[in-house]
Amino acid sequence: MKMPSKLAKTLAISVAATFISGAAMAADVTLKLGHVANEQNSWHMASVKFGEELAKLTDGRIETEIFPNESLGKEIDLINGMQLGTVDMTITGESLQNWAPKAALLAVPYAYKSIEHMDEVASGEIGDQIKAQIIEKVQIRPIAYFARGPRNLTSNRPITSPDELNGLKMRVPNVPLFVDVWAALGAQPTPMAFSEVFTSLQNGTIDGQENPLALIRSASFNEVQSNVNMTQHVRSWIYLTISELTWNKLSEEDQEAVMKAAAVAQAYERDLFEKSIADDRAYLEEHGMTFTEVDGDAFAAKAKDAVLANVNDEIKPIVEKLFEH
Protein backbone atom coordinates (compact mmCIF):
# COMPACT_ATOMS: atom_id res chain seq x y z
CA MET A 1 0.00 0.00 0.00
CA LYS A 2 1.37 3.41 -0.92
CA MET A 3 1.62 6.08 1.72
CA PRO A 4 -0.51 9.22 1.33
CA SER A 5 1.05 12.31 -0.18
CA LYS A 6 2.67 14.76 2.21
CA LEU A 7 -0.04 17.32 1.59
CA ALA A 8 -2.88 14.89 2.25
CA LYS A 9 -1.20 13.75 5.47
CA THR A 10 -0.70 17.37 6.51
CA LEU A 11 -4.34 18.14 5.81
CA ALA A 12 -5.49 15.11 7.79
CA ILE A 13 -3.29 16.07 10.75
CA SER A 14 -4.42 19.69 10.59
CA VAL A 15 -8.05 18.58 10.83
CA ALA A 16 -7.35 16.75 14.08
CA ALA A 17 -5.15 19.55 15.42
CA THR A 18 -7.75 22.20 14.64
CA PHE A 19 -10.67 20.49 16.32
CA ILE A 20 -9.07 18.44 19.12
CA SER A 21 -7.74 21.69 20.56
CA GLY A 22 -4.19 20.45 20.82
CA ALA A 23 -5.06 17.37 22.87
CA ALA A 24 -2.25 14.83 22.92
CA MET A 25 -4.55 11.81 22.74
CA ALA A 26 -5.53 10.34 19.39
CA ALA A 27 -9.06 10.50 18.03
CA ASP A 28 -11.37 7.60 18.91
CA VAL A 29 -11.95 6.84 15.21
CA THR A 30 -9.85 7.61 12.14
CA LEU A 31 -11.64 7.24 8.81
CA LYS A 32 -9.46 6.43 5.79
CA LEU A 33 -10.84 8.22 2.72
CA GLY A 34 -9.11 7.35 -0.55
CA HIS A 35 -9.91 8.85 -3.95
CA VAL A 36 -8.43 9.17 -7.45
CA ALA A 37 -8.31 12.98 -7.84
CA ASN A 38 -5.40 15.33 -7.17
CA GLU A 39 -5.17 17.89 -4.37
CA GLN A 40 -6.42 20.73 -6.59
CA ASN A 41 -9.63 18.90 -7.51
CA SER A 42 -12.92 20.00 -5.94
CA TRP A 43 -13.57 16.41 -4.80
CA HIS A 44 -10.41 16.51 -2.71
CA MET A 45 -11.20 19.93 -1.27
CA ALA A 46 -14.72 18.74 -0.41
CA SER A 47 -13.20 15.68 1.30
CA VAL A 48 -11.07 17.98 3.44
CA LYS A 49 -14.18 20.05 4.26
CA PHE A 50 -16.00 16.85 5.25
CA GLY A 51 -13.16 15.91 7.62
CA GLU A 52 -13.10 19.37 9.17
CA GLU A 53 -16.86 19.39 9.75
CA LEU A 54 -16.94 15.86 11.14
CA ALA A 55 -14.12 16.60 13.58
CA LYS A 56 -15.95 19.72 14.71
CA LEU A 57 -19.30 17.96 15.11
CA THR A 58 -17.75 15.12 17.13
CA ASP A 59 -15.42 17.29 19.25
CA GLY A 60 -12.45 15.62 17.60
CA ARG A 61 -13.54 12.04 18.32
CA ILE A 62 -13.62 11.24 14.60
CA GLU A 63 -10.87 12.38 12.27
CA THR A 64 -10.54 11.76 8.54
CA GLU A 65 -7.28 10.82 6.87
CA ILE A 66 -7.39 11.61 3.16
CA PHE A 67 -5.42 9.75 0.48
CA PRO A 68 -5.64 11.50 -2.95
CA ASN A 69 -4.03 10.52 -6.27
CA GLU A 70 -4.89 6.80 -5.99
CA SER A 71 -2.35 6.59 -3.13
CA LEU A 72 -4.63 4.15 -1.29
CA GLY A 73 -5.51 2.30 -4.51
CA LYS A 74 -7.41 2.66 -7.78
CA GLU A 75 -11.18 3.17 -7.72
CA ILE A 76 -12.10 -0.53 -7.90
CA ASP A 77 -9.42 -1.37 -5.31
CA LEU A 78 -10.94 1.20 -2.95
CA ILE A 79 -14.44 -0.24 -3.39
CA ASN A 80 -13.10 -3.74 -2.72
CA GLY A 81 -11.26 -2.42 0.33
CA MET A 82 -14.47 -0.92 1.69
CA GLN A 83 -16.19 -4.28 1.31
CA LEU A 84 -13.33 -5.96 3.21
CA GLY A 85 -13.06 -3.28 5.90
CA THR A 86 -9.57 -2.00 5.02
CA VAL A 87 -10.86 1.30 3.57
CA ASP A 88 -13.61 3.43 5.11
CA MET A 89 -14.59 5.92 2.42
CA THR A 90 -14.17 6.82 -1.24
CA ILE A 91 -15.63 8.91 -4.04
CA THR A 92 -17.12 6.74 -6.79
CA GLY A 93 -19.83 6.73 -9.44
CA GLU A 94 -20.95 4.70 -12.42
CA SER A 95 -18.22 2.10 -11.79
CA LEU A 96 -20.63 0.78 -9.17
CA GLN A 97 -22.82 -0.61 -11.97
CA ASN A 98 -20.48 -3.62 -11.92
CA TRP A 99 -22.45 -4.59 -8.79
CA ALA A 100 -25.56 -2.38 -8.85
CA PRO A 101 -27.06 -1.90 -12.36
CA LYS A 102 -28.96 1.25 -11.36
CA ALA A 103 -25.64 3.04 -10.81
CA ALA A 104 -25.41 3.30 -14.61
CA LEU A 105 -28.06 6.04 -14.29
CA LEU A 106 -25.36 8.36 -12.96
CA ALA A 107 -24.01 8.97 -16.49
CA VAL A 108 -26.53 8.29 -19.27
CA PRO A 109 -26.14 10.48 -22.40
CA TYR A 110 -28.92 13.04 -22.82
CA ALA A 111 -30.86 11.73 -19.81
CA TYR A 112 -30.56 15.02 -17.90
CA LYS A 113 -31.60 18.24 -19.61
CA SER A 114 -29.99 20.59 -17.08
CA ILE A 115 -28.14 20.52 -13.80
CA GLU A 116 -31.46 21.31 -12.12
CA HIS A 117 -33.01 18.22 -13.74
CA MET A 118 -30.02 16.14 -12.64
CA ASP A 119 -30.31 17.45 -9.07
CA GLU A 120 -34.03 16.63 -9.07
CA VAL A 121 -33.24 13.04 -10.04
CA ALA A 122 -30.20 12.56 -7.81
CA SER A 123 -31.99 13.88 -4.72
CA GLY A 124 -35.40 12.39 -5.52
CA GLU A 125 -37.10 9.00 -5.79
CA ILE A 126 -34.82 7.67 -8.54
CA GLY A 127 -31.77 8.75 -6.58
CA ASP A 128 -33.13 6.95 -3.52
CA GLN A 129 -33.55 3.76 -5.59
CA ILE A 130 -29.97 4.01 -6.84
CA LYS A 131 -28.58 4.55 -3.33
CA ALA A 132 -30.65 1.69 -1.88
CA GLN A 133 -29.37 -0.73 -4.51
CA ILE A 134 -25.76 0.38 -3.96
CA ILE A 135 -26.12 -0.21 -0.21
CA GLU A 136 -27.69 -3.63 -0.81
CA LYS A 137 -25.45 -4.89 -3.62
CA VAL A 138 -22.13 -3.17 -2.91
CA GLN A 139 -22.27 -2.73 0.87
CA ILE A 140 -21.19 0.90 0.65
CA ARG A 141 -23.42 3.86 1.50
CA PRO A 142 -23.70 7.07 -0.57
CA ILE A 143 -23.81 10.02 1.85
CA ALA A 144 -23.45 12.97 -0.56
CA TYR A 145 -23.10 13.58 -4.28
CA PHE A 146 -20.96 15.90 -6.38
CA ALA A 147 -21.80 17.14 -9.89
CA ARG A 148 -19.37 16.38 -12.68
CA GLY A 149 -18.65 18.76 -15.53
CA PRO A 150 -20.89 18.10 -18.55
CA ARG A 151 -19.15 16.73 -21.64
CA ASN A 152 -19.02 19.00 -24.70
CA LEU A 153 -17.97 18.46 -28.31
CA THR A 154 -14.97 20.40 -29.66
CA SER A 155 -14.23 20.95 -33.35
CA ASN A 156 -12.77 23.45 -35.81
CA ARG A 157 -16.18 24.62 -37.03
CA PRO A 158 -19.43 25.47 -35.28
CA ILE A 159 -21.87 22.58 -34.93
CA THR A 160 -25.39 23.43 -33.78
CA SER A 161 -27.36 20.29 -34.72
CA PRO A 162 -26.76 16.61 -35.53
CA ASP A 163 -27.23 17.36 -39.24
CA GLU A 164 -24.07 19.49 -39.13
CA LEU A 165 -21.86 16.65 -37.88
CA ASN A 166 -21.55 15.35 -41.46
CA GLY A 167 -19.39 12.37 -40.55
CA LEU A 168 -17.09 14.35 -38.23
CA LYS A 169 -14.14 12.14 -37.29
CA MET A 170 -14.06 12.39 -33.51
CA ARG A 171 -12.37 10.62 -30.65
CA VAL A 172 -14.59 8.86 -28.14
CA PRO A 173 -13.69 6.63 -25.16
CA ASN A 174 -13.65 2.92 -25.95
CA VAL A 175 -17.17 2.46 -24.57
CA PRO A 176 -19.87 0.91 -26.80
CA LEU A 177 -22.50 3.37 -25.55
CA PHE A 178 -20.42 6.37 -26.65
CA VAL A 179 -19.49 4.82 -30.00
CA ASP A 180 -23.09 3.90 -30.84
CA VAL A 181 -24.57 7.23 -29.73
CA TRP A 182 -22.17 9.33 -31.80
CA ALA A 183 -22.61 7.07 -34.82
CA ALA A 184 -26.39 7.49 -34.51
CA LEU A 185 -25.94 11.25 -34.32
CA GLY A 186 -24.08 11.26 -37.63
CA ALA A 187 -20.44 11.46 -36.57
CA GLN A 188 -17.63 9.02 -37.30
CA PRO A 189 -16.60 7.99 -33.76
CA THR A 190 -13.05 6.71 -33.30
CA PRO A 191 -12.12 5.04 -29.99
CA MET A 192 -8.69 6.23 -28.90
CA ALA A 193 -6.61 6.54 -25.74
CA PHE A 194 -6.86 10.01 -24.23
CA SER A 195 -3.07 10.40 -24.37
CA GLU A 196 -3.21 10.24 -28.19
CA VAL A 197 -5.93 12.85 -28.70
CA PHE A 198 -3.87 16.06 -28.86
CA THR A 199 -1.46 14.73 -31.50
CA SER A 200 -4.31 13.19 -33.50
CA LEU A 201 -6.15 16.53 -33.56
CA GLN A 202 -2.92 18.26 -34.51
CA ASN A 203 -2.17 15.99 -37.47
CA GLY A 204 -5.77 15.68 -38.68
CA THR A 205 -6.29 12.01 -37.85
CA ILE A 206 -9.43 13.20 -36.08
CA ASP A 207 -11.34 16.48 -36.30
CA GLY A 208 -13.02 16.59 -32.90
CA GLN A 209 -13.37 15.11 -29.43
CA GLU A 210 -15.69 15.40 -26.44
CA ASN A 211 -14.86 16.06 -22.78
CA PRO A 212 -15.70 18.35 -19.85
CA LEU A 213 -14.30 21.89 -19.99
CA ALA A 214 -11.76 21.13 -17.26
CA LEU A 215 -10.16 18.41 -19.41
CA ILE A 216 -10.36 20.51 -22.57
CA ARG A 217 -8.42 23.17 -20.67
CA SER A 218 -5.88 20.92 -18.93
CA ALA A 219 -5.13 19.05 -22.18
CA SER A 220 -4.62 22.38 -24.04
CA PHE A 221 -7.10 21.39 -26.74
CA ASN A 222 -7.60 25.13 -27.34
CA GLU A 223 -4.28 24.95 -29.23
CA VAL A 224 -5.70 22.52 -31.81
CA GLN A 225 -9.49 23.20 -31.71
CA SER A 226 -11.38 26.45 -32.24
CA ASN A 227 -14.93 25.61 -31.14
CA VAL A 228 -16.65 24.28 -28.03
CA ASN A 229 -20.11 23.13 -29.09
CA MET A 230 -22.25 23.10 -25.95
CA THR A 231 -23.75 19.67 -26.47
CA GLN A 232 -23.60 18.90 -22.73
CA HIS A 233 -24.47 15.37 -23.83
CA VAL A 234 -23.47 13.68 -20.57
CA ARG A 235 -24.40 15.25 -17.26
CA SER A 236 -23.44 13.09 -14.32
CA TRP A 237 -22.76 12.92 -10.64
CA ILE A 238 -20.52 10.94 -8.32
CA TYR A 239 -21.00 9.83 -4.71
CA LEU A 240 -19.08 10.38 -1.51
CA THR A 241 -19.50 6.98 0.15
CA ILE A 242 -18.79 5.18 3.41
CA SER A 243 -18.38 1.44 3.97
CA GLU A 244 -21.39 -0.27 5.55
CA LEU A 245 -18.94 -2.06 7.86
CA THR A 246 -17.73 1.32 9.10
CA TRP A 247 -21.20 2.87 9.17
CA ASN A 248 -22.61 0.09 11.34
CA LYS A 249 -19.86 0.56 13.91
CA LEU A 250 -20.87 4.18 14.46
CA SER A 251 -23.41 5.27 17.06
CA GLU A 252 -26.62 6.90 15.85
CA GLU A 253 -25.23 10.21 17.05
CA ASP A 254 -22.06 9.78 15.02
CA GLN A 255 -24.01 8.60 11.97
CA GLU A 256 -26.00 11.82 12.19
CA ALA A 257 -22.75 13.79 12.42
CA VAL A 258 -21.41 12.02 9.32
CA MET A 259 -24.53 12.95 7.35
CA LYS A 260 -24.38 16.58 8.50
CA ALA A 261 -20.71 16.82 7.55
CA ALA A 262 -21.48 15.23 4.18
CA ALA A 263 -24.23 17.79 3.50
CA VAL A 264 -21.78 20.62 4.22
CA ALA A 265 -19.20 19.01 1.91
CA GLN A 266 -21.79 18.63 -0.86
CA ALA A 267 -22.79 22.31 -0.73
CA TYR A 268 -19.14 23.38 -0.57
CA GLU A 269 -18.22 21.23 -3.57
CA ARG A 270 -21.11 22.66 -5.62
CA ASP A 271 -19.79 26.19 -5.08
CA LEU A 272 -16.33 25.07 -6.20
CA PHE A 273 -17.83 23.22 -9.18
CA GLU A 274 -19.80 26.22 -10.43
CA LYS A 275 -16.78 28.47 -10.07
CA SER A 276 -14.58 26.01 -11.97
CA ILE A 277 -17.06 25.81 -14.87
CA ALA A 278 -17.07 29.61 -15.16
CA ASP A 279 -13.29 29.84 -14.81
CA ASP A 280 -12.66 27.15 -17.42
CA ARG A 281 -14.98 28.80 -19.93
CA ALA A 282 -13.36 32.20 -19.39
CA TYR A 283 -9.89 30.70 -19.82
CA LEU A 284 -10.80 28.87 -23.04
CA GLU A 285 -12.47 31.96 -24.50
CA GLU A 286 -9.42 34.06 -23.62
CA HIS A 287 -7.28 31.47 -25.42
CA GLY A 288 -9.22 31.62 -28.66
CA MET A 289 -12.11 29.18 -28.38
CA THR A 290 -15.63 30.12 -29.47
CA PHE A 291 -18.57 28.67 -27.54
CA THR A 292 -21.51 27.62 -29.70
CA GLU A 293 -25.02 26.89 -28.40
CA VAL A 294 -26.66 23.81 -29.91
CA ASP A 295 -30.15 22.39 -30.44
CA GLY A 296 -30.06 20.03 -27.46
CA ASP A 297 -33.51 18.59 -28.15
CA ALA A 298 -32.49 17.58 -31.67
CA PHE A 299 -29.35 15.85 -30.39
CA ALA A 300 -31.30 14.04 -27.65
CA ALA A 301 -34.05 12.88 -30.02
CA LYS A 302 -31.54 11.43 -32.47
CA ALA A 303 -29.49 9.75 -29.73
CA LYS A 304 -32.41 8.19 -27.84
CA ASP A 305 -32.67 4.84 -29.65
CA ALA A 306 -28.92 4.21 -29.44
CA VAL A 307 -28.93 5.04 -25.72
CA LEU A 308 -31.86 2.72 -25.01
CA ALA A 309 -30.24 -0.09 -27.02
CA ASN A 310 -27.14 0.10 -24.81
CA VAL A 311 -28.58 0.39 -21.31
CA ASN A 312 -29.35 -2.51 -18.98
CA ASP A 313 -32.94 -3.82 -19.18
CA GLU A 314 -33.39 -3.06 -15.48
CA ILE A 315 -32.92 0.69 -16.00
CA LYS A 316 -34.38 1.02 -19.50
CA PRO A 317 -37.89 2.07 -18.29
CA ILE A 318 -36.31 4.74 -16.06
CA VAL A 319 -34.18 6.06 -18.93
CA GLU A 320 -37.26 6.24 -21.18
CA LYS A 321 -39.01 8.38 -18.55
CA LEU A 322 -35.97 10.62 -18.22
CA PHE A 323 -36.00 11.25 -21.97
CA GLU A 324 -39.66 12.27 -21.71
CA HIS A 325 -38.89 14.92 -19.07
Write the layout of secondary structure elements.
Layout: H1 6-19, E1 29-34, H2 42-57, E2 62-67, H3 75-84, E3 89-92, H4 115-122, H5 125-138, E4 140-155, E5 169-172, H6 176-185, E6 188-191, H7 197-203, E7 208-212, H8 213-218, E8 227-243, H9 244-247, H10 252-286, E9 290-292, H11 296-310, H12 316-324
Parallel strand pairs: 1-2, 1-3, 5-6, 5-7, 8-9
Antiparallel strand pairs: 3-8, 4-7, 4-8
Helix pairs in contact: 1-2, 2-10, 6-11, 11-12
- The coarse overall form would be globular
What is the CATH C-level name of the largest domain? Answer: Alpha Beta
Largest sheet: 9 strands, mixed
CATH level 3 topology of the largest domain: D-Maltodextrin-Binding Protein, domain 2
Portion in strands: 15-25%
- Which class do the helix and strand fractions yield? alpha/beta
Radius of gyration: 21 Å
Distance between the termini: 46 Å
Annotated CATH homologous superfamily of the largest domain: Bacterial extracellular solute-binding protein, family 7
Order of helices and strands: HEHEHEHHEEHEHEHEHHEHH
Q: Name the CATH architecture of the largest domain.
A: 3-Layer(aba) Sandwich
Supply the number of helical segments. Answer: 12
